[in-house]
Design brief:
Blueprint (H helix, E strand, L loop, with lengths): L10 H18 L6 E2 L11 H6 L4 H9 L2 E2 L4 E3 L2 E2 L3 H6 L6 H8 L11 E3 L8 E4 L4 E4 L34 E3 H13 L3 E5 L2 E4 L3 H7 L3 H10 L10 H15 L5
Antiparallel strand pairs: 1-2, 3-4, 5-6, 6-7, 7-8, 9-10
Length: about 260
Amino acid sequence: MPELHEVSYSREATIAAFRDYYQFLTKMYMPETMIDEPPTGGWPSITNEKVRLLGKNEEVAELMRHLPYLSDNGVLATGAECAHWPDLFAEFGRICVKDMRFCTEDLGWENVPPTAFGILFDRDCRIVLDTKFGVIHWVDGVREEANTARDCIPGHTFWDCTPDNEDWRCGPAWSIPDFFEVLKQLHRDLVYIPIHEARVEEWFDEYETSDHSPYLPPVRKVYREHGWPDLSVYKKKECMEAVQKLLEERFDAWY
């Protein structure tokens, strides 16, 4: 289990980790066109002044400005739409600061420090990146039975080095690269099952899933039949076409 003092923050490594994860998703199901790469010099809508009004510091501004993002309601994990910060800041003024932070952080957003920001636009699923510690907090956490690929940093590790009002840190956290390895493994294991490019659902167990989402077991089977997760044999185009055909022909009323 990693210790907090063993983890550090690097802007370049963080940007690379986001980009690598998005590329992984394009190998499984997502079109490459959904990755929005920053222009030279960074996203122009993300300025230090706007980020400061959001309550964040200059390092957060620099990171936001140079990250790639997912367009078209792309999701980071099951039911978790990515925060497209260039678009959000383009709407700055029409979307008030309180609403923007509520939708990306919630948590009693006033308790999220200037070094940290939400990477989702989804107040029901809260994932916060903290540049001070170089970690990503998955506030609601991943199910205990899932193979998480990397050991988390326990929440109690932060008790002696953060204010008492940041109790949202009690959930699991990972170093930034490890967090994305956790998400990759959940996709490899088909705990996370893409239905189409902007929808990913979660597998629980055979009984519960079949009862509430009967299309997931056969969709899971389609991915296996097309070679997933072995990228040397996996046929993405054929797999996604087969998934859509299955849903349209057998599960139209559910889907």
